[in-house]
Amino acid sequence: MTYRRSVPNFKILTLGCKVNQYESQQIREAYLRQGFQELFDGRPADTYIINTCTVTHHADRASFVLIRRAKRENPQAKIYVTGCLVKMDAAKIKERFPDVSFLDKDEFKQGINAFCGHTRAFLKIQDGCDNFCSYCKVALVRGKPRSKPFDEVIHEAQRLVDAGFKEIVLCGICLGSYGKDFGNVDLVDVLAALEKIKGEFRIRLSSIEFGDVRERLIKKLETSKKLCPHLHIPLQSGDDRILKLMNRKYTAEDYLKLVQELKRRIPLLSITTDVMVGFPGESEENFKNTMRLLKEIQPLRTHIFSFSPRPGTAAWQLYLKSQVPYGIIKKRLKILKEFTDRLSYEFKKKFQGKELVVLSEGQSGYAQNYILVNLDKDKSNVNEFFKVRY
User: pLDDT, tens digit, for every residue of 88-115?
Assistant: First the structure.
């Protein structure tokens, strides 16, 4: 009697940003090409890939939780750990979990053909960062900026459009630095080439730094029929003293002037942003300055997070000398959350009665300017564009 050998299977557990999610898709497709089956339910897998994040100490902790979860689900499984936590903390991982192995994501260089579980496809075109913000480990673990070859970006985008994806989200660790290592192309050149791809789809930019929003990009936002009028520009603080300590290369006034110019020239534009609470030495006045600036900017969404002490960063020494008490941070987080929710409501009110184009994800979907819109049943077909009156 012949016994049929079962198909090997795997699970990927991912933490972190759009770049991490893209890299998990690269790994997924590599395993599928080797004949593995991916499991999504509670069944134990033969192989687990844990794609970690280390942007905050909470992310570190969550990464260890996922490793423990995999070991609990199948103590005999092969467990591979990859991602940002591995770069500086491999020894710590091995100390806690001696039997795990490390997976080098640099081995997975082939572009993707799909994006599992998403109606929008993330397309990583850049990696690395040399901004060295004082609180951030990313530049330490991701290395210097480097760009995906121009032709590879366009071919990969074409494959995703051909696969039926109607929104391509360009992402990178420092997206706006695309092409600086080449010297003859930049992000706007990528956008111009992507616009020539035939098909019904749109392009969205993920997070982009203040200094990379220049005139060429603004003009492209003004004129493009495919580029979404939405920019995520991290702010972090609205206080000049704190911005300087963070090694952010702009002032509160610089940021405000840019947003005002963008909104003047692109009426549909929305701004989303990141704000940090509790940076070492942040006073009540510093915090109020952030609130004042946010009121002027009126972002659609604000991702709020507390300062996370990261050994090896420039802010680590500041943290040891001038920590903001946890109780104060907790209070400020609550105040800022309620405040930015009101600002978001006020911003969205400006679009009442206006026509928006929404990419349906079922009962809701995102408009071109990233406003989340609830949809009627007749507009609930997934992955279709609908014009709606907001």
Answer: 999 999 999 999 999 998 888 899 999 9
Alpha-carbon dihedral 224, 196, 369, 269, rounded to 10 degrees:
-20
Common-topology check for domains 111-228 and 234-350: yes
State the fold for domain 9-107: Rossmann fold (3.40.50)
| CATH node for 111-228 | 3.30.750.210
Rg (CA), the chain: 22
Q: Look up residue 43 and give its two tokens.
A: 């069944």
Q: How far apart are CA 65 and CA 193, in angstroms?
A: 42
Q: Please tell me what DSSP assigns to residue 272.
A: E
Identify whether the C-beta of residue 167 lies closer than 8 Å to the C-beta of residue 359: yes
Q: Report the half-sphere exposure of 256 (CA within 13 A, side-chain side).
A: 15
DSSP 379: G
User: What are φ and ψ of residue 169, in 5° steps?
Assistant: -105, 110
Taking phi first (over 0 means left), then psi (-120 to 50 degrees means alpha), and beta for anything else, what does residue 70 get?
A: alpha
Topology of domain 234-350 in CATH is Transcription Regulator spoIIAA (3.30.750)
- The confidence score (pLDDT) of residue 191 equals 98
User: Dmax of the chain from CA atoms?
Assistant: 79
What is the β-pairing status of strands 167-172 and 121-127? parallel
Measured distance CA(239)–CA(252) in Å, rounded: 6
Two tokens at 96?
């806690």
Q: Answer yes or no: are the C-beta atoms of 126 and 146 closer than 8 Å.
A: yes
Q: pTM of the full predicted structure?
A: 0.95
Domain spans of the chain, in order of start: 9-107, 111-228, 234-350, 355-389
Contact between 359 and 120 under an 8 Å Cβ cutoff? The reply is yes
Spatial separation of the C-alpha atoms in residues 38 and 220, rounded to whole Å = 40
198: tokens are: 């035939």
Measure the CA–CA gap between 316 and 184, rounded to whole angstroms.
38
What lies within 8 Å, CB to CB, of 133 at 6+ separation is 139, 236, 246, 247, 248
User: Please, what is the Cα angle at 78 between 75 and 82, to 5 degrees?
Assistant: 120
364-368 own/partner pairs: CB under 8 Å, 24+ apart? 366/167, 368/202, 368/228, 368/229, 368/230, 368/268
d(CA 286, CA 242): 7
pLDDT per residue as tens digits for the range 303-338: 999 999 999 999 999 999 999 999 999 999 999 999
Say if residues 39 and 77 touch (Cβ distance below 8 Å).
Answer: no
